[in-house]
Amino acid sequence: MNWIILIIAGLFEVAFAFCLGKAKLATGNEMYMWYGGFLVCLLASMTLLIKATESLPLGTAYAVWTGIGAVGTVLLGILVFKEPASFWKIFFIVTLISSIIGLKVVSHT
């Protein structure tokens, strides 16, 4: 169950990065709404990370959490914010995903 909580925490990390990206493009009240979304997602992500580390090893949980955030944010940048997707960017994302899966496999919890 704590692995699921950790994955959700990572998705909230992607969501707070998305909110930052949208806030950067917005003005006025819309910008403040996106910053509010950022704060809500940040709080949810951190709370769930804390919950997950109650039974998962801290180093593994943190690496998986940041990995989910990194992969998700890069994919969001490519798909939503139209950032360029080079061969090497995709190669290293796949490498990062493989590393996250590897950490899960070798973790004994």
From TrEMBL:
Pfam annotation, one family: Multi_Drug_Res
Intracellular or extracellular location(s): Cell membrane
Family matches, as InterPro entries: EmrE-like, Small_drug/metabolite_transptr, Small_multidrug_res
TM regions (residue ranges): 33-50, 62-81, 87-106
Keywords, comma-separated and alphabetical: Cell membrane, Membrane, Transmembrane, Transmembrane helix, Transport
Topology of this chain in the membrane: Multi-pass membrane protein
Family to which the UniProt record says this protein belongs: Belongs to the drug/metabolite transporter (DMT) superfamily. Small multidrug resistance (SMR) (TC 2.A.7.1) family. Gdx/SugE subfamily.
Protein name (database record): Guanidinium exporter
Source species of the chain: Maribacter confluentis
